[in-house]
Design goal:
about 400 residues; mainly alpha; Growth Hormone, Chain: A; disordered N terminus
Length: about 400
């Protein structure tokens, strides 16, 4: 009888943990949906806002896209370090959503592109939420469903983006840039309330003692994967260039946001599926698929000869994003020591972010000086190098 009672207590405890984990995952997914809905009310018109409404050139667009990523990459590493050190996740998540909301208010009030710079940094600084959030997802997952859970979160990100783009396309003509950006600030504030209300931080007894983090202490596979991701990030310039490419190809300005809608819809549809696939066949193989998909994006744009090639490029871009982003985070969370998950995820995202500035700025300068085909060819070469390096990584 004692054993049966113990079994019931154990099962009850397990059920309680499972319920709490499921609630945490659903709340994080809902908050991600809302935040991306707000941010992606802006992103489809962002390159046009900078280059047409505020009168900046392509080099400035590349600088703005790369600068925020490079600067905030350091804050990501810092937030991951603090999250592990303090044993706290929640505070970084809701603070990041507040930063995102305030930045959109700043965009709406900016009279010139110079004023946009600090708000762009604040916007990207909102990404301090990412390493603690990803560590929380990893904490409530098992080896059998970790890829699926990261894919679910990323699918909700992209689904929020789809809704945001639909709102932007539907109301941009009547609202204009400034009113649309003011409206975009609201969903992230709702996400803040969700996190504060629904997420419960793990108790002190569940924390693992913080032991410090350094590059030399990482496994050889994790170090190699950071190098691979950095090389690939140097060639994978921001989506803004793809949207401008479609405009340069003769597509009307009013139709450009539909390309953004196309790739976010595809990414939303496949992120969960690629996450599950990585649980079954391994992370490395799915990442290799995502690199090949990016190479096909570059090839489609290089040989672009009309609307069908542009459509195929954005579909491939959606497949690339849906396959790469959730599986990258899943792999890093698995290669990282348990007590260093947030710090390692933050360090990894810092590597990606630091590569974003030379990537986007370099692509903008090459576009202006040598033509739009040159950054695409450079990106193809870096992608091939990344695939070769990936072959030598032994992770499953």
């Amino acid at each position: 009888m004692k054993d049966m009672g113990s079994e019931r207590v154990g099962r009850g405890t397990t059920d309680s943990i499972d319920d709490r984990s499921g609630r945490t995952l659903r709340t994080l997914a809902a908050a991600s949906f809302l935040n991306d809905m707000g941010s992606d009310m802006i992103y489809p018109v962002w390159p046009l806002f900078i280059t047409q409404f505020l009168g900046a050139n392509m080099a400035v667009l590349g600088l703005l896209d790369g600068l925020g990523e490079a600067l905030v990459s350091i804050s990501k590493a810092f937030s991951g370090y603090l999250s592990d050190r303090l044993g706290k996740r929640k505070v970084f998540i809701w603070t990041g959503y507040i930063f995102g909301s305030l930045s959109r208010l700043g965009y709406a009030l900016s009279p010139s592109w110079g004023w946009v710079v600090p708000f762009r940094v604040l916007d990207r600084a909102g990404k301090i939420r990412s390493p603690p959030r990803d560590a929380m997802v990893a904490d409530v997952s098992s080896d059998k469903d970790r890829g699926r859970n990261f894919g679910f979160i990323r699918s909700m990100d992209h689904l929020g983006a789809v809704v945001g783009v639909v709102i932007a396309v539907s109301f941009f003509s009547s609202l204009g840039y400034r009113n649309l950006f003011l409206l975009a600030a609201a969903p992230s504030m709702v996400a803040v309330l969700l996190i504060l209300w629904k997420i419960r931080e793990a108790g002190p007894g569940s924390r693992v003692a913080y032991k410090g983090c350094n590059f030399k202490g990482m496994s050889s596979d994790l170090r190699l994967f950071m190098v691979i991701s950095g090389v690939f990030a140097l060639g994978s310039f921001s989506y803004s260039f793809l949207l401008i490419f479609s405009r340069e190809a003769g597509i009307g300005t009013g139709f450009v946001p539909f390309f953004y809608l196309l790739f976010t819809t595809v990414a939303s549809a496949v992120s969960f599926l690629f996450g599950r696939l990585s649980d079954r066949i391994g992370r490395k193989f799915v990442i290799a698929i995502s690199f090949v998909l990016w190479a096909l994006v570059c090839l489609s744009l290089l040989i672009s000869d009309g609307l069908p090639f542009l459509i195929s490029a954005f579909v491939l871009f959606g497949l690339h994003k849906g396959s790469l982003e959730p599986v990258q985070k899943t792999l890093v969370s698995e290669l990282a020591p348990h007590e260093l998950k947030a710090g390692t995820l933050g360090g990894y995202q810092m590597v990606i972010g630091l590569c974003a500035l030379p990537s986007s700025l370099g692509a903008g300068l090459m576009w202006m000086l040598l033509g739009p085909g040159v950054p695409l060819m450079v990106s193809l070469c870096l992608t091939v190098i990344s695939l070769i390096l990936l072959y030598f990584m032994k992770a499953r």
